[in-house]
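Tutorial, part two.
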Amino acid sequence: MRKTIALNTEPHVIEVGPHELELQPEVYGDEFVDAYMELQEAQKAKGVDLENLEEADPTTLRKTMRAVRVFLARQMLPESAEFFLRLDVVRDGKVLESFQDEDQALAFVAEHPGARVQDALRLPVRAVAEMLEAVVELYGAGSGNRPTGSSSGSAPRSRPGGTRGTGPSPSRASTPISGR
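Running the prediction step on this input gives:
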């Protein structure tokens, strides 16, 4: 027996509003698991339950959402990851400086009264959560070879095994076949 396992060679794309974020065609299992474990550890250490965000401290929630973004960016191609993780320091609606590192951005804010840090790609929490679900399904266990587009792009469901109408019906199953 010979089994061929195809590997994706084209980047996966997640469309978020007008932006397209490109993800790696394939992610090695150990790299994905390591990144996912780091995300879970960060989430547990901060005590945030992503299923119950109403009770989370805002500062802690921001740190957790940053950890989710870092996890997602690790699955992206470099240009998309850089854009997705970029933090802008903004004051009076103007970007003063951009950073990849949150600590550097916060240090810059401390030196510029009235400035604040915001994600360059501002997204609602639900959009980041949807991205997380999509990436876990795409690269996680049991993901199969699914397209990243809408479900209308999926292959039709397979028919159950066997052939329709060839088995004996219950009423004839015990009737002998004549003419033999």
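Residues 143-180 have pLDDT under 50 and may be disordered. In part three we will examine how such features are distributed along the chain.
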